[in-house]
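User: I'm writing a tutorial on reading structure tokens. Could you give me a worked example: one chain, its sequence, then its tokens, then a sentence or two explaining what the tokens reveal?
Assistant: Sure. Here is the example chain.
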Amino acid sequence: MITATVRKRLALALSSALLLSLPLWSAASHAETRAPIRLATTTSTEQSGLLGWLLPQFTKETGYPVQVMAAGTGQSLKMGENGDADLVMTHAPSAEKAFVEAGFGIEPEHLMYNDFVIVGPAKDPAGLGKLHDAAKALEAIKDKGQTFISRGDESGTHIKEKTLWQAADVKPEFAGYKSIGQGMGPTLTMASELGAYTLTDRGTWLAYQSKLDLAVLLEGDKRLFNPYQVILVNPKRYPDLNTEGARTLKNWLVSQHGQQLIGDFKVAGQPLFVADAKPQ
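And here are its predicted structure tokens:
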């Protein structure tokens, strides 16, 4: 038989349990009602695994879900220009500068960097391992009649590749040049299957290298530096943007906490990116 005293204690315990659970329920409900943030970014940030590392933590801490639209830098910036994204994360400084100067982007922030490398078959028939100049490396690939796989998608990597062909004073129109219009992962896979050369960001290379029959043959040229920025799309052009959420994400990424998480991201024990945002 339950006495009055026991009933009173049970009622108090139940009330306490409900009070303790209320903040958790409220927080969950609040998180579910936040408008999603549309992030247009490069395939390298997705295929390297970086976004899979960062964004779940961001959502957990802020309640904002993030919709990732991964494409080449050119396509990502075009999504920003069309108001189809709330912010962009890209790696083509000249294109990003034009994007901001044209009034499509605001509040650009340096985020991180890594570098590009030229990879190819370990036997290296073009002799790239003896060179230190990326432009001369591409010239050697052409002169030795080797195959080069280009992303051909106006991505940051493709833009960098075109500047290197220009520096080499070579038109990429030779028989072995194949432009495939694909992201970095498929480009690396095709290069591996064909025993060809290609230019890749180091992050995607490190994420894919265990699956590929390729080796890094040229690195360290200062022209292979690969910086990333995060830029808000201008709400004056598109008032319906989720600018509040986008700014929350941008500020989180460049904060000390976000920068630490970027620096902590590793594949096979190697960091893929160096965080370099200015202190907030």
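What the tokens reveal: The chain is about 45% helix and 20% strand. Confidence is low (pLDDT under 50) at residues 1-31.
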